[in-house]
Structures are given as C-alpha cells and as structure tokens.
Amino acid sequence: MQDKITRLFKAIADPTRRDIFHALVIATSALSITQISNQFEMTRQGITKHIKTLEEAGLVYIKSEGRERFCNANPKELQEVNKWLKFYEQFWDDKLGSLGDYLNNKV
Amino acid sequence: MKDVIKKEVVFNHAIDQVWNAITKAEEISTWFIPADFKAEKGYKYLFTSPPNEKGCTTIGGEILEANPYLLIYTWIVGDTETETTVKWELESTSEGTKLTLEHSGISNYAGETAVAMFESFNGGWDNCINGLTSYLKEEVNAG
User: Fold this and answer.
1) How are beta strands B59-67 and B35-36 bridged, if at all?
2) What is the pTM of this model?
3) In this structure, is residue A54 part of a structural domain?
4) Which residues of B touch A (CB under 8 A)?
5) For chain A, how many structural domains are there in total?
6) pLDDT tens per residue across span B17-63
7) In chain A, N or C: fewer CB atoms in 10 Å?
C-alpha cells in the first residue's frame, strides 16, 4: 500500500503528466494515444511513457482496440490523498485560529 | 497536488509569547489539545483529547528539534505507524511574529490506513474540536 501511494505521488509530481491526466478527466470519452500525442505535440513514445506511469499509479485505464490504445482517467485514486490534505488543511486552519484567539485573550 | 501543508500566520504578539504557546504543556493544552509535552529533543510527547469526549484519538511522537524558534516533531495518530512531521518556525517581524507551520509526509499515509483513519477522524475529530472550542469559550467567559 505504501508503494501505491508513492507511485501516485510520483505520477502527479510531473506537470506534463498532470496536464495529460487533466485532459483525460475532462474528455467525455476515452482518448487514444494518437489523440493525446496530437493535443500535446509530443511523440507517441513520450506520451506512452507518461501514460504508463499514470497507469501504474492507477490513475489511468488503458483499453486496446485493434492497433490503437484508448485511455480513460480514474480520478478516484486521488480522492484518498485529497481527503487527507483537506482534513489537515481544515485542522490546521482551526488550530491556528485557536492559537490566535488564545494569544489575544491572554493579557 | 502536494503532500506538504504549509500555513503562515502573523500574530500581533512578541515572539516569546508565541513560542511559549507552542512549547509549554499547559499552554498547548489550553488552545490545542491537552498535552504531555516537553520542548526537549528526544522527548516523547502525547496529545490526548478531553476525557469527557468519546471517539477521540491520541497523537504522539518525538521531539526532533526544539530550539528557539524552531520546533519539529513527528506526528503519529492513534495506534497507527504512519509517521508525518510537523514543523513550527517563528520569526520576528515589524508587525509581531510570523509563524510558519509545515506538516509534511502526508503521502506516507498508506491507502487503506487513510480510509480507516479518516473514518475515525470523521466524527472523532469533530468531537475533539467542538470540545476544545467550548472549553476555550468557558475559559474566556470564566476569566
């Protein structure tokens, strides 16, 4: 499980991969490697490498049809980490608010 | 997407006042979470939620650094083994004291643990925070 999260963070650490992932999330249907290459003006090889990293992290599903491969986003994976970040964001905002109140009232 | 939470707040108070608030057990216990805490390197601290609240979990860890004005400790929730790090740094400014808080290593939360822990937080932490809020209100009213 630890590895899974590490892969997830590795996948989203790269801005190009985030852009590819975003493009897949907003696409209404699966995109082929060719379509993604055209959209990002990158070689198929480059795109394939990025897609593979996203797939390993569980962020993208790949389905082969004939000679073409189609990619679908799986944003569910990100929700887990997001939950944690959201929780702590709120937690620290609340706590630092309390600290401010505490300091103001302590005269 | 990131795995570090960073917060910056400026307090209109002297740096030592803020430093005491984040390092002295009785002060931490007032605004944060009731604490067994010593700002000494190597000390194993423990934050425990108010005893009258149910479903709260403890937070413990070890002080890695505690020199004015830098405080770093590990942050381990409940019985889990997931270790994250919390860093508090103070700096004097013309307006008072700037506090920079960094909570890093959120990515260490393994997927399954995150679900279980989040569920225990969900409700549990609300109780903790509500308990603390009412405690603080009572303190202020009483004072």
Assistant:
1) unpaired
2) 0.62
3) yes
4) 1-3, 5, 7, 9, 11-13, 17-18, 21-22, 27, 30-32, 99, 101, 103, 106-115, 118, 121, 125, 129, 132-133, 136, 140, 143
5) 1
6) 999 999 999 999 999 988 999 999 999 999 987 654 445 578 899 99
7) C
